Amino acid sequence: MGQRITLSVPDGSFAAYLATPDAANARGTAIVVIQEIFGINADMRETCDNFAREGFVAICPDLYWRQEPNVELTDKTEAEWKKALALYNAFDVDKGVADIDATIQAVRLQPGVTGGVGTVGYCLGGLLAYLTATRTGADAAVSYYGVGMDKHLDEASRIAKPLLMHIAEEDEFVPAEARAKIIEALEDSPHVEIHTYPGCQHAFARNDGVHYVADAAQEANARTLKFFQAMK
């Protein structure tokens, strides 16, 4: 279902995983899937494939390409965590958002994309999805347990398109104080819908993840699907 493609930006080029729906099932809309700290791994490819099965064109760009292209890690070993965290700590958020914006523009030109383009991100990608709602022309955005969002709440007034947020109530990477600040800053926005998941740790919706919680993941993913189905 998926294939590797190459996208170009002024300072270079990077890979992306592109999954396309069957013609009979195509909705005409697209979703940019934004990676966690582990790169374009099996989880991200499966996420793209699942969206394609639902009729969306789905694309996941390699946001680590300036540091190390084609990173593919899991959450299963200490060595992988160590490498993922090193990449995350060196990651340039502003350039990452610019690469996502370029991906949004590129996928609008893909065959069969005649409608809106949304973004969905997880962990690091959850922060970046929020920032696509404040900095890009994305038509909708979904943030799963975004890390570091509390440092960018001064941008919240720029949100003009629908933003759906999934917050884990026991997120070990987003302290309770930060979660409270995020909710307080965004809950009254007419464009933002927030859901919290009691008892869930970070990455409760990661496919085959260490902290996967089936009921919560299914609930969050159902909300996400319904949200994107409403995108025109």
From TrEMBL:
Domain Dienelactone hydrolase spans what residues? 14-230
Source organism per UniProt: Cupriavidus campinensis
Output this protein's name. Answer: Dienelactone hydrolase family protein
Hydrolase in keyword set: yes
Task: Write out the entry's keywords from A to Z.
Answer: Hydrolase
Superkingdom per UniProt: Bacteria
List the Pfam families: DLH (PF01738)
Q: What Gene3D superfamilies has UniProt attached to this entry?
A: alpha/beta hydrolase
| GO molecular function terms listed in the Swiss-Prot or TrEMBL record | hydrolase activity
Instruction: Quote the SUPFAM superfamilies the UniProt record gives.
Output: alpha/beta-Hydrolases
